[in-house]
Structure prediction request, 236 residues.
Amino acid sequence: MVDCRVAGQPLEHILGWAEFCGLRIAVDAGVFVPRRRTEFLVQQALDQAGASPGAVVVDLCCGSGAVAVALLAALPCAEVHAADVEPAAVRCAWRNLAAAGGRVHEGDLFAALPGALRGRVDVLVVNAPYVPTDAIGLMPPEAREHEPRLALDGGTDGLDVLRRVVAGAPSWLAPGGSLLLETSAQQAPSLVDALAGTELLARIVVSDELAATAVIAAFPGGDPASSERGGRWSAR
Prediction:
């Protein structure tokens, strides 16, 4: 194990698990390792779910399913779905979610989801790849050499996949539903601009503690109260 770590393999791949939101998440070799900053996305998603015990929650671009697992742990009565295009990630997510009653789907973004979910999703959480293509070479070798490029590469400006999510999300959200997107502080304003072309109203939330940024969008009149837990928030 020490030799593998010295050779640059991620510690989580060597151990076979990562800690996320206080939970042990199985992480197979070749699967994206959940980052601690994404715990902020989970916090915000729980705030959007509110007190609704039967909320329909979707973790899109789920990787190991860490976000879905954390949400299901906090919302045991919720209907939780996770989806990813990477077969290895889907297998790993099944291991993490099956026992808890979560459902996992394989496919490209919304094409992976059952049609019965259209217009029913209360909380759509997305941690899509958002690293600009030219910046991948600057990432630590344990990420760029051992995690799937498909889970990292967001295109020229890092927003290619997120723009596709933004375009498709409104038809999947329930009335009053929320879309939550992890992004970088530099990219967030451009993502809000992209949402301006939809029916959704967007705002930026930031956690200084976790160095995390997210964009939250909802239908007019259905924008839940924002939370300052774990950070500050700013509207644009």
